């Protein structure tokens, strides 16, 4: 028995499914998840001493590579000053300012501990500010595990959603309208029918949780214009894409160019540098509805934790233009290598791309992937054999076809060569897969 097998067996005696976040259990790819004991640069080391080139990067936070020396030393220095004070600390406004500097329309920032808290607060704030109840979300967009946004079913316009999880009440689900992504007519119909009572649209800046899906040109601007016209707010969820898709998130590739800002943004992943920190930000007039200034309550014992702030400040300070240029270059190179390996096997696919983020989809070349229905219609059975072939070759991919791939500043040419070398055998395995 390998150490990971033993650890997984022990973990299952303690935690449901042996994990603290479901995707880690390898449910959709099968097999035993390697337990990790170390991470440095572009590499992970498992409990059996095997090394992997990491294409998950902690789902985004390892932007500069694992255990980056500047982040490590900032964290060590912060630890020496104390772990948590239960009072305001100087670095909270400093990290907030770094976020403000990069994003349009972020006049105020509130730190929280997880992306889920950020979107939960944004939704409550939008309701409190507008005095309205309904929220529009798009099918296939993930905004964390708050009840009202797990709602996902409901095809067609203004269909009241079914709960996306057991334990979510029908009453909660009914307050969320779930619409197909990239579908302007569906948005227009929802506002025509319910406009007076829609508090906000929440959307991923570019969806990355049904695989990567690119918003059609002008789609986010359309959402901004539509919400503005009807007195609703636009919440742009940049928890995954923020300071990752580009130096100013996916907003930097859309709103910054098209000349619009979201009313509220949510951030997470990258801004904690690997520690648990997230934030919401936006227009002062809306943000000041939060307590203690306004009537919308929100709080957090460890919000703005000094060690996490130090990590986030080091991360954003060292996430220079050169870093994003490097991420783009390595993403381009990887995309080309995937296309070459898949083409050699006659494997039908499309590569979905949003800035430096991308994912692969099988059997989708004709239509492309524009929404959740397209993503679900792909040949998902090809991913598990592809994934396991890569894993055997020492490449750690996201353990689900519906997740984005992440490179880091530490993915040098040597690491990339290891990935390229593993692709042909994995493409063969995917090609041989049977439904
Ligand atoms: C990861 C993610 C969240 C949730 O963040 P957690 O820190 O896991 O709670 C919310 N929105 C998006 C787009 C995400 O990718």
Automatic annotation (TrEMBL):
GO biological process, one term: protoporphyrinogen IX biosynthetic process
Keyword Glycoprotein set for record: no
Keyword rRNA-binding: no
Cofactor(s), by name: pyridoxal 5'-phosphate
Top EC class of this enzyme: isomerase
GO cellular component: cytoplasm
SUPFAM superfamilies on file: PLP-dependent transferases
One Pfam family linked to the record: Aminotran_3
Molecular function, one GO term: transaminase activity
Entry superkingdom: Bacteria
EC number: 5.4.3.8
Keyword vocabulary terms for this entry: Cytoplasm, Isomerase, Porphyrin biosynthesis, Pyridoxal phosphate
Modified residues (N6-(pyridoxal phosphate)lysine): 269
Metabolic or biological pathway: Porphyrin-containing compound metabolism; protoporphyrin-IX biosynthesis; 5-aminolevulinate from L-glutamyl-tRNA(Glu): step 2/2
PROSITE patterns named in the record: AA_TRANSFER_CLASS_3
Subcellular location: Cytoplasm
Catalysis: reaction(s): (S)-4-amino-5-oxopentanoate = 5-aminolevulinate
Family: Belongs to the class-III pyridoxal-phosphate-dependent aminotransferase family. HemL subfamily.
Quaternary structure note: Homodimer.
HAMAP family in the cross-refs: HemL_aminotrans_3
NCBIfam families cross-referenced by the UniProt entry: hemL (TIGR00713), PRK00062.1 (NF000818)
Protein's UniProt name: Glutamate-1-semialdehyde 2,1-aminomutase
